[in-house]
Amino acid sequence: MTALRITYLDSEGRKQAVTVDKSSFIIGRHSECDLTIADSRLSRKHARIDKIGDFFVLSDLDSSNGTTINGKRLDEPVTLSDGDIVGFGGLEVNVEVEKPLSRQTRSALAGQSASPSVSGKTINTADTKTGIPFWLLFAGPAVAAVLVIIVGIVIFIAVSRNSNAADEALTNANEDISDIEKEPKRRKTSDQETEPDKALVNKSDMPPTSTSPETVVPAATASPDSEQAKIEANAAKFLRRIAQNDPKAFLTSDQAKIVAAKTKEFTGSAALADNIKSARKNSAQLRSLAAAKNVKPLFLAVAAMTKLGNSRGDVLATAQTMADTLDKLTIQLGNELADDCLLTIAAYNQGAAGETMKLRNLLQDLATKFPQSSREIRTIWFLQKQSKITPAEFDMAIRFLAIGAITQNPAAFGVNAEALDL
Question: Which of 12, 266, 324, 379 meets the CB 3.0–4.6 Å disulfide criterion with 339?
């Protein structure tokens, strides 16, 4: 029976191999998929492999970032072949197709194993003579002398080669040391160049860090008592709690300034205080509703408060009216990263109008027109800079972010309520 195996590197650089052992095999980042890959570039249900006889057919499931095969975009189902390279939103996997041996091949191999490897040689006893030939008495010493000479030559050549190899190894080592001394300083990557913009947050709010030299601790950009540092710390805390897997989410200094201006609209707001209390009161129901829609409860609650704005209202009832639309949008845009969640809020009015795929299609189009990475393009900041979303859509996302930051420490913003911890 023909078998198909796919191999890829996980987030830690380890090689993973999975055998497609079902007639319909779904790949994505959702836990219900047959192969779950925790990579934000994949949609919840990204692609499907169907086994039809001895063939495997790959189909894209309307994924956000698309599927490619050998560098070409997959627009319709295609049969996989051994050696194909498939890209799921940028994550590459290798395809191995193992076909069973044909009947002729198995017969040939069996015949080879059954035939004798060496024919026996018949010894003619009549030709066998006893005793030592007379001429061998003189030839023996001569043969021994020749053997001694040959062995000596072989030893001499071996010693010479070892000496040359040692000299060459020493020379190469010296050259390597010289090259290391002359090696230029490593250039910072784009991620490292932006590290100084990260906020200094309280250690209690930081995700667990490793001692790996690759771990970069965000540098302080403002004094702890400043308004901007307060925004950066609480916004980072909020972003990390609404995403499915984004423990290092943060705001740059410029982004924090934009959010800080928006928080002033809600500083000391009695209506927001009552809405936070309403969310705390209905926390159990909000958690249950969020779990049904595969979103974080804090994301759902703050989305409802964003819609209410500076008006008092029932946060749970508002969340219930928004849940279906948010669910449809997260299927298209994802919620693995905090930036995905902000995109969902920016697109909420599109989704409420029935256009749940509009922003997803825009992001796919931009990915083919701009040299930036998919992760950079998939942010409200990039879309706003390129005028690809309306001011109202951008404002809704910023309002969501501002209210979310306030909910993490209401007293710091003059709001009379306890922190919203869902």
Answer: 379
253-263 helix and 227-242 helix, angle to the nearest 10 degrees: 100
Q: What are the tens digits of pLDDT across the range 310-327?
A: 999 999 999 999 999 999
Task: Residue 28: name the closest of 42, 48, 10, 16 by CA.
Answer: 42
Residue 281 to residue 405: CA distance in whole angstroms: 19
Q: For 27-69, give the DSSP string.
A: EESSTTSSEE---TTS-TT-EEEEEETTEEEEEE-S-SS-EEE
Q: Given the structure tokens 């079902």, which residue do they identify?
A: 22
Residue 395 exposed, middle or buried by CB count within 10 Å (0-12, 13-18, 19+): middle
Least confident of 41-45, 139-143, 311-315, 359-363: 139-143
Please tell me the least confidently modeled range out of 49-53, 187-191, 298-302. Answer: 187-191
Q: How far apart are CA 257 and CA 226, in angstroms?
A: 12
CA dist 181 and 219 (Å) reads: 30
Contacts of 395 (CB under 8 A, 6+ apart): 262
Distance, CA of 243 to chain centre? 15
Domains, in order of start, for the chain:
3-98 (2.60.200.20), 224-413 (no CATH)
For the CA atoms of the chain, what is the radius of gyration? 34
pTM of the complete model:
0.51
